[in-house]
Amino acid sequence: MTPLQLLFHSNADSKADWEKRLAALDPSIEVRVWPDAGELAAIEAALVWKPPAGLLAKLPRLRLILSLGMGVDHVFADTLLPKHVPVARLVVPDLVNRMSEYCALAVLRYHRNADAYDAFQRERKWKGLPGEPAGANRRVGILGLGEIGRDLAGKLAPFGFKLAGWSRTPKQVPGVESFHGRAGLAPFLARSEIVVCLLPLTPETEGILNADAFAALPKGAVVINAARGGHVVESDLVAALDSGHLAAAQLDVFRQEPLPADHRFWTHPKIRVTPHNAGVTDPMAAADQIVENLRRLRAGEPLLNIVDPVRGY
Q1: Which fold does the domain 4-90+281-299 belong to in CATH?
Q2: Which of 18, 93, 155, 312 has its CB 3.0 to 4.6 Å from that of 104, i.e. a possible disulfide?
Q3: Which residues are catalytic?
Q4: What are the tens digits of pLDDT across the range 135-166?
Q5: pTM of whole model > 0.70?
Q6: Which CATH number fits domain 96-273: 3.40.50.720, 3.40.190.150, 3.40.1740.10, 1.10.10.10?
Q7: What is the pLDDT of residues 175-231, one digit of tens each?
């Protein structure tokens, strides 16, 4: 089979793992790792995470752009992106499971006041908190009912939580009260004591977690964001935490990554920071889908998980 030239770009230390796995699955794929990619004219596909602006426009034979993650906002952020080239997102069970595991753990931590008990241990204080609710008395809201949001709902349902979900358009998920559209956002937030953001980042969802959203949440609510940093207006979040209206926030994604060492989030007593590791893409679990999409590209067959550039997901 004629070799297919694949450009690989990622900021992660996984280049060798991807090269090895792709070669094992299809030796005809020739991986060209940026920036040592050699002549660019022969490249037909690109597997990327946060590619430099204008890079993809330099590939005259490019026929497919593959995201290394489920989100594709990092691709569409490039104003020079060749608009005739389809973009495919990565949707694999392993990645969905990693993301929903992270969020389920965060929900349970705040549901059972784990931060307070961590503090009690540091103080060597034997103390219980009265009135801790069982799952059936806790209202959890999920912003975004895509693959991850639905999987998270399935993980949380056995605990008996009162689950609700919000999406741009109506979506029905068993056991989840559904809200949608701008009109449904405020009532969704008003009933959510713990809210998890799993939305794609688009112009419509940029800054959706802002002062108005935080004010709509009940006093003492918790915000968990594992989607994109652009969903949160950072100054509004800090203000809502400092005022006491919000009890806590767990953040895995940020407007600037890595999070600067002098950023307020690192030291804020009510914020838990993790380094964008809720869902790390594993080549062993994800390369099969990449190879299948490249096979389809060569064969002229319909491609998997192609993104609507208008919606952005």
Answers
A1: Rossmann fold (3.40.50)
A2: 155
A3: 228, 276
A4: 899 999 999 999 999 999 999 999 999 999 99
A5: yes
A6: 3.40.50.720
A7: 999 999 999 999 999 999 999 999 999 999 999 999 999 999 999 999 999 999 999
